[in-house]
Structure formats: C-alpha cells, structure tokens
Design goal:
Elements (H helix, E strand, L loop, with lengths): L2 E4 L9 H5 L5 E3 L12 E3 L10 H5 L5 E4 L4
Antiparallel strand pairs: 1-4, 2-3
The chain binds iron/sulfur cluster (2 copies).
C-alpha cells in the first residue's frame, strides 16, 4: 500500500493538496487544530491512494511525503 504522511504542525490548511488529489481522498481535518491554529490535511482512505504524489507536489510548505508501496 502507498503511504502518505503529513508533518501536521507545518500545515497551513490552504487546501491545495485537497484540490490536487485525483482520488479526492485528501481532506482538511475539521476535528483537529495544529500548532499554527489550522485544520491540518489528512488522507481519509489510504487504500484508494494511487501514489501519484500530486498532493506532495502541490504543497507549498513541503508538509507531505508520499512513499509508493509494493502492489
Ligand atoms: S499520492 Fe495522489 S492519490 Fe495519493 S493522496 Fe496524494 S494526490 Fe491523492
Ligand atoms: S497543501 Fe500543504 S499546507 Fe496546504 S493544506 Fe495541504 S498539506 Fe496543508
């Protein structure tokens, strides 16, 4: 499985990664507030991730790391 990790406290909740994900599995976590006072991005369904890394490429703050897993 692919793995997408977030450095949660660096996220500024801009939502660019949410828009970039072709599978629509990146969301802003309305239940969480990070150190900067924003709702941080997270992946709701890792099983659907295709490892394209569009989310990581879009993030202006290098919050996201995508590790492509074995099939
Ligand atoms: S790697 Fe691609 S499919 Fe996976 S969460 Fe990021 S944008 Fe979405
Ligand atoms: S693009 Fe980066 S800073 Fe913006 S919401 Fe996504 S993870 Fe957070």
């Amino acid at each position: 499985m692919n793995k997408v990790t977030f450095k949660i406290d660096l996220c500024k909740g801009c939502g660019l990664c949410v828009t970039a994900c072709p599978k629509k599995i990146v969301l802003l976590d309305e239940k969480q507030i990070n150190e900067k006072g924003y709702h941080p991005a997270f992946v709701i369904d890792m099983d659907k991730c295709i490892g394209c890394a569009f989310c990581a490429t879009m993030c202006p703050d290098v919050v996201i790391t995508v590790i492509k897993g074995e099939k």
